[in-house]
Amino acid sequence: MTRLVVVSNRVAPIDEGKQAAGGLAVAVLSALKKSGGIWFGWSGEVVATPPGDPELTEAGRLTYATLHLTRRDFEEYYNGFANSTLWPLFHYRLGLTNFSRRTCEGYERVNALFARKLAPLLHSEDMIWVHDYHLIPMAEELRLMGHGQRMGFFLHTPFPSPEILVALPNHGKLMRGLCAYDVVGFHTEVDLRCFANYIHYEAGGRIEDRGPGRGIIVEAYGRRLLARAFPISIDTDSLTALAQSAANARQTERLRESLVGRDLIIGVDRLDYSKGLPQRFEAFHCLLETYPANRGHVSFMQIAPPSRTDVPEYQAIRKELEASSGHTNGRFAEFDWVPIRYLNKSFTRRTLAGFFRVSRIGLVTPLRDGMNLVAKEYVACQDPEDPGVLVLSRFAGAAQELSAALIVNPYDVEGVAEALQRGLSMPLEERRERYHANMEVLRTHDIAKWRDDFVGSLTAAPYDA
């Protein structure tokens, strides 16, 4: 019997109490619960001695298989090459990209370790689905060990243009590893086009277009594979029901009471430089400066759970946001009103669903994002009779689907302020029209379609006929 084996950098906690940063854990867990199989990856623990066999935990139809990392592996693989090299590079931030052979070797070493530890758990008929930039070399490592199972890879970040990617000294080796999969998935057609351009112009490979929405066949590095856009989504109906039940929950009522009839703009993002948070804070400041009637009548609540706290760039952005929010509050606050509520903490999915539902504006303005599921979650949580407005960056993958949002350029601070003003003053009929148009997309392209499309494509492998 064919099983699905999911491999990701982190395995979501079995006791899911918190909103999963970035949406990967929520999406993957939703897929696995319906198909059954194994979820393999790092436990999140850093230990002094090299790991032994994976720790196995059974949970219904799922087996969680987790490994610890040593401090050296954590620093070189995770903090180093994955998050100080690939993450900024894939988000077009060359100025923040640090490369060293030491961290590159650590990245390759941990991928080889993961492959060795996963191998004894595999059956010959398994389908292996690897996730994200941390684990690009996994398939090649398994192939070198003689494993011929169908293997797919999904990238949850943007894929950079060749002009950006070639700045990475080992770009050819990394892309050869990516082509060791049978199916490679991206969020958008833009990402797919960047990959195709690299294969054609840098790798000297061949591209066969299968037609709109069906991806491309790639021949490169002695391999033939399918590459395609698979826009990730959410469990729309489940989240809508959750928001309905949370509408009158205690936390939601506390938030509503604290607003005292004021409109709320909400942002929910992991604390990361790719999310455009400094520009977002500046745009809200510009809103109050340019449209003074909003003073005392609109509040902005930014929820930004800290992440990667060991990385200096993340420490710097936290200080910048604290200073920015303090500046705005010092400039505009009254004794009974604080313009910005800046929270460095996590909330449960139920609590966030309630917060989304009472917010007049969902502000999602990353400088570059693979998809951004927060944008979709905000829409799904709205009250159909009195929905809020999504203000969305054109550089989020979600903008390719949620075209009824107010699409903005996050670098244009004044333009974002204008969009906020438009959303705050938008008539109810227009808000409903935009909401229903976006919800049609979310109901048609939900997490089940994402899972079925990818697994269906992987089931059809190999593509070497």
Topology overview:
Layout: E1 4-10, H1 24-35, E2 37-47, E3 55-59, E4 62-70, H2 71-90, H3 101-118, E5 127-131, H4 138-144, E6 150-154, H5 162-165, H6 171-178, E7 183-186, H7 189-201, E8 206-209, E9 216-220, E10 223-229, H8 236-246, H9 250-259, E11 263-268, H10 277-290, E12 298-303, H11 312-332, E13 340-343, H12 349-357, E14 361-364, H13 373-380, E15 389-393, E16 406-408, H14 413-424, H15 428-444, H16 447-459
Parallel strand pairs: 1-2, 1-5, 2-4, 5-6, 6-7, 7-10, 11-12, 11-14, 12-13, 14-15, 15-16
Antiparallel strand pairs: 3-4, 8-9, 9-10
Helix pairs in contact: 2-3, 3-4, 8-12, 10-11, 10-14
What would you say this structure looks like, in words?
The chain is α/β, with parallel strands linked by helices and 465 residues long. It has two domains: 4-233 and 447-459, Glycogen Phosphorylase B (Rossmann fold), CATH 3.40.50; 236-444, Rossmann fold (3-Layer(aba) Sandwich), CATH 3.40.50. It is 42% helix and 19% strand. The protein is built from 16 helices and 16 strands. Strands 3-4-2-1-5-6-7-10-9-8 form a ten-stranded mixed sheet, sandwiched between helices. A six-stranded parallel sheet has the order 13-12-11-14-15-16, sandwiched between helices. Helix 2 (71-90) packs across helix 3, helix 8 packs across helix 12 (349-357) and helix 10 (277-290) packs across helix 14 (413-424). The longest helix has 21 residues, at 312-332. The radius of gyration is 22 Å and the shape is globular.
Q: In percent terms, what proportion of residues is strand?
A: 15-25%
Sheet with the most strands: spatial strand order: 3-4-2-1-5-6-7-10-9-8
Provide the number of structural domains: 2
Number of helices: 16
Overall mean pLDDT? 94
Structural class computed from helices and strand pairing: alpha/beta
Share in helix = 40-55%
The CATH homologous superfamily name of the largest domain equals Glycogen Phosphorylase B
| SS elements, strand count | 16
